[in-house]
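Review session, final week

We close the course with one last complete record, chosen because it touches almost every idea we covered. It is Peptidase S8/S53 domain-containing protein, a protein from Mycobacterium parascrofulaceum ATCC BAA-614 with 273 residues. Go through it on your own first, then we will talk.
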Amino acid sequence: MDSPLKRAAAAAAAVTLVALSANIPAAQAITPPQVDPGMVPPDGPPRPEQPMRRANSCSTPITVRNPDVAQLAPGFNLLNISKAWQYSTGNGVPVAVIDTGISPNPRLPAVPGGDYIMGEDGLSDCDAHGTIVGSIIAAAPQGVLPMPRPMPSTPAFPPPAGPPPANGAPPPPVEVPPPVAPPPPPPPVTITQVIPPPPPPPRRPRAAVPPPSPTGRRIRRPRTNPRCPRSRRARPTGWWESPRTRRSSRFASPPGLLSPSIPHRVTPTRTRR
């Protein structure tokens, strides 16, 4: 039987659990954390993690003697740049080109940045790829290329009406619909299949029955007991028991004489009556 002390401890534990469950607040949205930019350490200069060196020679760009400046670039018509300029031209917006570097020229002024490979300022392009990408973005036009129009006074996409959302304010509660009850299980289906019994195994063929003798009696082979020495030896039949006696061709004896010391073979015959 349990002691009164154990009963009192169990009752106290039950009361504690009920009190803890009553103090648990209802589920609500978590306030996003506030990030202080002053606590972030400053960025260091771009540099490689370990010393590196250039293994291949730089590519040398070539220029066309008489370029057709009246011809627009293929990407100008493909991207429909003239219609995109009516929303924004990007004039005065700095763009960071993360590529092989940029070689500045009069039509493409560049601001020094950094180099994570060689540790330089990024104003040298060994592959010419970064210079081409930077020229597509911010190179000044020349010749008859259309100049971008100034930005409109009113933005193409006005800001939404109403006060701006306050930082740290919890979002309004959203009514979550109750979960949909699962459909009832389908009724069981019973499948009955009748399988015929397997065929019986084939019977072993019986031994061939020897043909009947001319006298109508069945000829049986004499059974010999291998353990009995007498049954192993066949008793020769005398010449007096059969009208015909066949002797061995190797050892011949006079007719009417039969010596037991001379090996011979006697074949008994049966005379029909």
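Two points worth writing down before the exam:
Residues 91-147 form one domain.
The chain has five helices and no strands.
Good luck, everyone.
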